[in-house]
Amino acid sequence: MASRGRRGGAPAREDEPRREERAEQQAPAPQGHVLPPPPPVDYGVFMQGLVQAMQMQAHTHAALQAQLEAQDEFVRLFRAKFVPEHIQDWMEQEFLSLTQGSMTVLEYEATFSELSKYAPHIVANERRKTKKFMMGLKPSLRTRLVAFDHRTLDEALSAACRQEGEMEQYLEEKKASQKRPATTFQRQDKKKAVYQTQQRSVAVGSTQVPFVRSPGVKKEFPHCGKTHGGSECWLVAGRCLKCGSSDHKIKDCPRL
């Protein structure tokens, strides 16, 4: 019996690979587009192209730098030939004494760049040019920026514009906050005046208005023997001899 089990087990193990092959053949094919494998990368060609691009960029930068230097030299020679020396000295002094004043930061920077052409010994150094620009700003801006070490003019200009915008926004909010309470007080005063006017009109329209004696110099009347105001004697007119009211007699006067 044992030998039969061993003999029968061998063909079963041999059939297992065949079953797996059949299952793979019968498995459904994947649906959709199948992307092809990426092509192999030739790193040698890639590095060669990168080096060529860097060399071209360096060559272009050098050409632009040479063009700018040639342009500056042309401007210098043109001014030396056609602009009088005393005009150049005067423009240089204008640049040295330039401050922002009432100009905006952008307006100040435009004037600074225009006059700096007459002081090449200062603007040749980027740090000195940046320092000169910072010292010409308004004191309120300069105190905010002096703590930062701006190495280029572009950095200083960007920071100055940002600080100027924040200061303008703060001043606008401050003005708006100062106007709001005044408007509130004006409305309260207006309501109070309207309320007092209404109360006064109601009091005038009421029948319970106390008697008001006519103003004038008091004199003694012979009929009643009293000194009181008015042009008519209270006794003759039938008024109260205590307060002068015509609503009651002296015996009913509330002042007694």
Automatic annotation (TrEMBL):
Q: Which UniProt keywords apply?
A: Metal-binding, Zinc, Zinc-finger
**TM stretches of this protein:** none
Q: State the PANTHER family in the record.
A: DNA DAMAGE-INDUCIBLE PROTEIN 1-LIKE (PTHR34482), GAG PROTEASE POLYPROTEIN (PTHR34482:SF48)
**Taxon lineage:** Eukaryota, Viridiplantae, Streptophyta, Embryophyta, Tracheophyta
Sequence ranges of Basic and acidic residues compositional bias: 12-24
* Name this polypeptide is given: CCHC-type domain-containing protein
Residues covered by region (Disordered)? 1-39
Q: Name one GO molecular function term.
A: zinc ion binding
**InterPro entries per UniProt:** Retrotrans_gag_dom (IPR005162), Znf_CCHC (IPR001878)
Ranges of residues in domain CCHC-type:
239-255
